[in-house]
Design a protein that fits this description.
The chain is 20% helix and 28% strand. The chain contains two helices and eight strands; from the N terminus they run H-E-E-E-E-E-E-E-E-H. It has helices at 3-15, 131-149, and strands at 34-36, 54-59, 63-68, 71-76, 79-84, 88-91, 110-117, 122-128. A five-stranded antiparallel β-sheet has the order 1-2-3-4-5, covered by helices on one side. It is globular, with a radius of gyration of 15 Å. It comes from Chryseobacterium rhizosphaerae. This is DUF4348 domain-containing protein.
């Protein structure tokens, strides 16, 4: 399947997994830093492969991440790391902070996802909390499972918000 067709299909399937349209998503962060990107988008300081298309990015003060049709790219405190979906094992479960109240009862502004690589390494991704993080985790699983097994992780019959 061509990258453009795959991007369109994975977004169509994954958007059915959330109960709000992207324009209605909200975060506990001060502003929404997570955005879908167009096919011709070229991020700064990242060289994408010829057949790779960007899907979604989050640009925070101290970190940046981009999900493409082939890999997850993360830059934290100026350190670049990435993982191709074929070299991704699963989410770590450790180091993750997902919408849990802090000790002072505040909800977190960002969520941290930890992705375990096949070689045992870890990729840390920081993203706006709540809807962007929830959607992104499903998106990553949908791409991972489709690339490895030819099926979707989640594929509801219709959108919850229709």
């Amino acid at each position: 399947m061509e990258a453009k067709e795959f991007k369109s299909l994975v977004l169509e399937v994954t958007l059915k997994c959330v109960d709000r349209r992207p324009e209605d998503w909200f975060t506990f962060n001060d502003k929404m830093n997570t955005h879908f990107v167009k096919d011709n988008y070229q991020p700064q300081n990242i060289i994408m492969d010829k057949d790779e298309l960007p899907i979604i990015e989050c640009d925070l003060d101290d970190s940046y991440f981009l999900i493409t049709t082939d890999r997850i790219i993360s830059i934290n405190d100026g350190i670049f790391d990435s993982v191709n979906f074929f070299n991704m094992f699963d989410f770590c479960g450790t180091n993750e902070k997902l919408n849990y109240r802090n000790t002072n009862e505040e909800l977190p502004k960002i969520d941290t996802l930890c992705i375990k690589k096949v070689d045992g390494g870890k990729l840390i991704v920081k993203i706006d909390s709540h809807y962007p993080a929830f959607f992104t985790k499903i998106l990553i699983y949908n791409i991972l499972v489709y690339k490895k097994e030819g099926r979707w992780y989640l594929n509801p019959g219709k959108r919850d918000y229709e």
